[in-house]
Amino acid sequence: MDTLLSSIMVIASSVVATTDGTEPGRDIATLLMRSTFYVSGTSTGGTAFILCHPINGEGSDPQFVSTLVTAHHVLDKISEDFMSIEWRRETSTGYERQLEKCAIRSNGKPLWVKHPTADIAAMHVVVPPGVDIGLVSTAVLATDENLIKYEVKPSDQLFVLGFPHAQGLGGFPVLRTGAIASFPIVPTKKYPLMVFDFRVFPGNSGGPVFMRSEMRYYEGSFHPNIVQFIVGLVSERSNPEVAVEDDLGNVTVQRQDLQLGIVIQAPLILQTIEMLPEIKLAPSPTP
After folding, report:
1. What residues are paired with 123 via a beta bridge?
2. Of 7-11, 152-156, 242-246, 266-270, where does mean pLDDT reach its minimum?
3. What does the alpha-carbon distance between residue 210 and residue 27 come to, in Å, rounded to a whole number?
4. CB of 156 closer than 8 Å to CB of 213
5. Among residues 88, 178, 83, which one has the least CA distance to residue 128?
6. Taking residues 193-220, what's their average pLDDT?
7. How far apart are CA 179 and CA 195, in angstroms?
8. How far apart are CA 24 and CA 5, in angstroms?
9. How far is Cα 57 from Cα 171, in angstroms, rounded to an integer?
10. CA-CA-CA-CA torsion sign (276, 162, 234, 108)
11. Residues 55 and 278: beta-carbon distance below 8 Å
12. Rg of the chain taking only CA atoms, in angstroms
């Protein structure tokens, strides 16, 4: 029987071993692979990922709330008041899928918040006990300062996770790559979108786009550290209307798939998450 998810799960410091909420000792690709899921309604679906967002709880231990992030149109196009999430559990024989329902509307009103100008939605969710999930903090969302310091530029390789045409392997998303194909990138307030050189299919919308760069050159030299952060999320494919002339000279306006993706930059994701209602917790029990 499907479980209706209607409350919030808080991840305490006993589970999260770093102060920002990110699981220690893991690269961002593995963590995001484990925290990215397929969400769907009766006739539509897309990609969503879950971040740990710090909240103002009393006590000495940091506490985090599970926040689901996706493209706004993914949730908006689901006509039902519930969406399906395909969770995953790790067992002794491998991973098993677990399809459950999650409320996205109450009395017809969305339970998510939408960015005022961008195609981003965020909502609190509860992660069922036993579900395998990578703990990724909102602290890994790239800021303008990150983009400037690490000299993120056109031609830089990015990675994206998603479920093109609802396809994955064992319930996990597909990892694909492409390059930043637009300029300028900052300030993101003026340039909230970037063009990404990869083809977007139905089901890719809402997927996280991230950088993982080793021996990166910045500030005048190469650095041995790994630079990794979330750059943004997939919003749509680039398919502008263009005038097309046939052999007889007839001109029609058609949409052309440029095989490019439109990515909304990470600062707008954080802005959306910060629009969610504040959650206050009781103090952590004293040992």
Report:
1. 68
2. 7-11
3. 11
4. yes
5. 88
6. 93
7. 9
8. 28
9. 34
10. negative
11. yes
12. 20
